[in-house]
Amino acid sequence: MTHPWPVAITGLGCICAAGTNLDACMESLYGGRRAPAPSLRFSSNHPTRFPVFEVPDFSEPPELLRTSALGLHAAREAIADAGVDLETLRSLRVGVCVGTTVGSAMNNEQFCRDYRAGLDPDLAPIERILRSNPAAAIAREFGLTGPCQTVVNACASGTDAVGLAASWIRGGVCDMVIAGGADELGRITYNGFISLMITDDSPCKPFDRERKGLNLGEGAAMLILESEQLRSGRAKNARSFLLGYGSACDAHHLTAPKPDGEGLRYAIAEALSCSDTPAEEIAFVNAHGTGTPDNDRVESRVLADVLPGVPFLSTKGYTGHTLGAAGAIEAAFTVACLERGMVPGNAGFATPDPELGGTPVQGCSKIEGTVALSESLAFGGNNSVILLGKRGTA
Amino acid sequence: MRMAVKGIGVTGGFGTGVADLVAALKSGVSRMDGITVPSAQGPLQLPAFRAATERLEEFAPKRTLRRIDHYSKMGLLGAYLALQDGGLLDSDLSRLGVVVASGYGATATTFAFLDSIIADGDICASPTHFANSVHNSAAANISIMLGAKGPSLTVSQFDMSVPSALVSARQWLAEGRVDAVLFGAIDELSDLIGYLWHRQRGPQSGGSILPLQVDRESSVVGEGAAFLLLTRDDGGKGYCAIDGIETGSLYQGELSLPGDALMLLGADGRSELGARYRAMVPSRSRVACYAPIYGSMPAASGFDLACAALILQGGTAFPITGAAGCDMGGRPVELETERICAVRLAEANEYSAITMSRL
User: What is the set of domains in chain A, with CATH numbers?
Assistant: First the structure.
């Protein structure tokens, strides 16, 4: 394994139930505010109305899927934060790498209902899907010429997209990459997760003894990653750096994590080793922490083993599980927390679970250090970890 | 960094395995199947290239395959065949990465999940279908069946899925994250995909793709899996090298293509792309195109790369099926070639050019 150099993060953008920009989100997190509620956008004939975290007051244009519209919203904020204008963007080799779960799925319920009923349904919903590949939609909007990649690694997609984008920069594939994740809430994922019986009918409680499952959410976050040559040329300060990335597959089960967390251990080890970072330098871990019994048990035990004593928290109590967007949203939160030197409390946690490897951060807490981990576990056994922060000369 | 193609595993309308693909390429004949789609005039039988997965039982016990859907089975078969071809089937796979590129994912299972809701209501949504409809299900099943615990990536970029995913696969090898990548392209022809193809493209042209007649719609939908076992070029034996991957969007100017290479075009009979190929590819280029052997689908790029690897290993291009009346402006070839550029174009200015050469 070679030791790649840090990749600068010069812009951030975020939209989710916690807020329509990153500053607003962080105010919600530090203020301990969250408002999961039954969906206002779709209905279900399930007897239980499971709470979700919807982005309020956001509507997508008719030609795009909501997922891509959320991604574009976050990308605009990130580009503005990075201080690059459209002309500059178009003069550079700029790539787009975006994680999603539903953003490239060929499924439209009404179309399928009509098809099943023997009608010849209007093709507009399918054409919208074909126009809305999240990475391609961002590239098209800004006239970008670099490679596009929509990562569909289930709930690890956002973390993987950021890690892969950094390798594109290191490899000289791009001068700059807009990297992140985007996903919308809808009936299909709502019913799917309920069918798996891993959804909580009350506000989710990551790492709590009484946790019953996840609440779904929606949103997007984008990070601007750029080469040192470009950044130094335009004298732009980095908000943070992508220091390391690791990923590994459990090769165990389609939907359940491996009980011993083997893949997650590999991923953490790779992220640390490729950046020469000792475990003692980690200020905190932004955990996947969905609130499902299995995830939180496996994840907390691994953290207790490989990063003992390092504070950890889940921010999904504020956002819900935003699936393919989660890793990117949590990466943005991690950078913002490092900048402020403070993490929010793990919303929903009240009672320690003796089966877990530890208890998460309770209440806003100051942190010691400048480096943090953000991790994602996913269906398919995917485990992905990114290491963010500033160290040494970075 | 130069990559080497060490193994090939394919299944598609032409059959299963390298021998079947080579036979079809040499003869210009591939097995045309069909798919029935509903229409206002009643059920229509459309020509289509279907992939069989029976040979999977050579590698895995039947009982372990019971719950695996057709999409993942195609991927598994391609993966096993590529590993076998590359001599790694029974090797330590701890330093193996898995990369899957798919335009549409597990569409039959995705639609089956929707059907479970539509037919029986939200409360009867099928958890099995939901779990298997996730886009990375094939990569997951491959990792589980092989015990491959390295990094895993699935990319869905419609027509650009393969070149896009190849960029990241190359980075994994360049950075030393893995020693080999099992790189696969998969697309599945479900009933609804067939229906959509028919609705978007209208009556089929008698079942023959005429890829170089650029203004004529002649696409025939296909399915299959094409896997390549990739390593860093270590100077050892293999099919060929992958020297460069260029992909992105072109808003102005011309695509820079190597003048000395055979252009292996991704043209597949879709009329809206034909004019772009004609405009992009220099008029005096030597061109080849093999979509008539495996059909039209986003993952066809993977088959293009497999064909390019076979040509470079053998040193001679295969004859082009459906070249009659060629109006591409280029010259179809059956000449020796040292270098191939696999060119693929998609809507909205997207392009890829993958340069490959002999080892």
Answer: 7-389 (3.40.47.10)
- Does B2 contact A at CB distance below 8 Å? no
Asked if B168 lies within 8 A of A253 by C-beta distance, the reply is: no
Would the CB atoms of A139 and B249 count as touching at under 8 Å?
A: yes
Portion of chain A with pLDDT greater than 70, in percent = 98
Distance (Å) from the alpha carbon of A286 to chain B's nearest alpha carbon: 21
- For residues B6 and B180, the answer to whether their CB atoms sit within 8 Å is yes
The second-level CATH assignment, the architecture, of B3-357 is 3-Layer(aba) Sandwich (3.40)
Complex ipTM tops 0.90 = yes
DSSP A188-212: HHHHHHHHTT-B-SSS--TT-TT--
Is the Cβ pair B144, A112 closer than 8 Å? no
Whether residue B170 lies within 8 A of chain A, CB to CB, comes out as yes
pLDDT at A393 (0 to 100): 44
Tell me whether A148 touches chain B (CB under 8 Å). Answer: yes
In this predicted structure, the answer to whether residue B350 has a pLDDT above a threshold of 90 is yes
* Distance of alpha carbon A134 from alpha carbon B156, whole angstroms: 10
pLDDT tens string B62-94: 999 999 999 999 999 999 999 999 999 999 999
Q: What is the per-residue pLDDT across B42-58, written as a single tens digit (0 to 9) for each? A: 888 899 999 999 999 99
d(CA B217, CA B194): 16
Count how many pairs of residues, chain A against chain B, have C-beta atoms within 8 Å: 223
Q: The pTM is what?
A: 0.97
* Facing B149 at nearest CB: one of A135, A194, A248: A248
> Given CB atoms, is A286 within the 8 Å cutoff of chain B?
no
Helices and strands in chain B, H and E counts: 10, 14
Question: Where do the domains of chain B lie?
Answer: 3-357
Q: How far apart are CA B102 and CA B8, in angstroms?
A: 17
**Closest Cβ–Cβ partner in A168, A173, A195 for B125:** A195
